[in-house]
Amino acid sequence: MNTLFFKRNFYYVAVFAALILSACNKDLSRSTSSSTTSTTSATSATIAVAVDSVSGDSIYVKQECPRGFFRDSISASSVPSNISTYLNSNYAGFSFTKAFVIKDSTGTIAGYVLIVQYNGKPVALFFSAGGSFVQVLEQTESGDNEHGWHTGGRYGNRNGLQGDTVALSALPSTIGSYFSSNYPNDTLLRAYKNIDSSYLVISTDSIVYASVFTSTGVFVKRVALTNNSSMFNGDIKSVAQDSLPAIAVAYLNTTYPNYVFDKAFSVTRNGTLQGYVVVIDANSTKYAVLFDASGNYVAVRIIW
Known about the structure:
Structural class: mainly beta
Shape: globular
CATH topology of the largest domain: Nuclear Transport Factor 2, Chain: A
CATH class of the largest domain: Alpha Beta
Radius of gyration: 20 Å
Order of helices and strands: EEEEHEEEEEEHEEEEEHEEEE
Distance between the termini: 21 Å
Number of strands: 19
Largest sheet: 5 strands, antiparallel
Strand order of the largest sheet: 4-5-6-7-8
Number of domains: 2
Strand content: 35-45%
Helix content: under 10%
């Protein structure tokens, strides 16, 4: 099932240093049919973020722009230290692309937008004025429809058909051999083929793991999605998206606009629910988001 969380009236943030940045309510380029309506609270403009080296299409980032707000480009050295700490902790190995400070009509800082490259993919993040993480910003590309995707496009998995899911039996034999040799106790649960043709395999062995392999089945990395803490140590079972607590779904909708649901797990111990692990795709980056038994956010693991 696909979660389509689409907001109208956005402005788009550029990463090209050569672009001259101006007020949010000025149309700096072409606008799409899904982002041309103006209201008293938000306006829209379109600026290219990057160019897909494969398709040649421009990629865009969307974020609401209250009327009267504006943005200024800032250097990496001007980014607040707690934002840099967040990026280093969660997106280790990222490369800086562009940063903006968002200000209101009085010049008071209202937030920051950071655009980085992580695993060869653009990631756009919004932070509060104090530097706290708020949201992963939605991306689209040229030709996308009002829901942010088109057939064969970078974000085509938003169509709800889960086209990136791969049958475990269809994985390259080298992946099965790798698990047999290195993690013989793992139970493979689900596999995905990423936009770069790499593979992501979800498995369990007392805790949940995500393992990444190249298109030819060569091992790249393994991420522990849960740990042996009291909350996430127990029996792990797959659960349906509609079985997740409403508060958890609301958090995902707000924090990862237009995300795609991949897989969810419950963790129980001695018959008592401890929490949930939800694997999602947000703009071609895989995340595992952890919630407690009530659905309150606990932590996030960036997979690939």
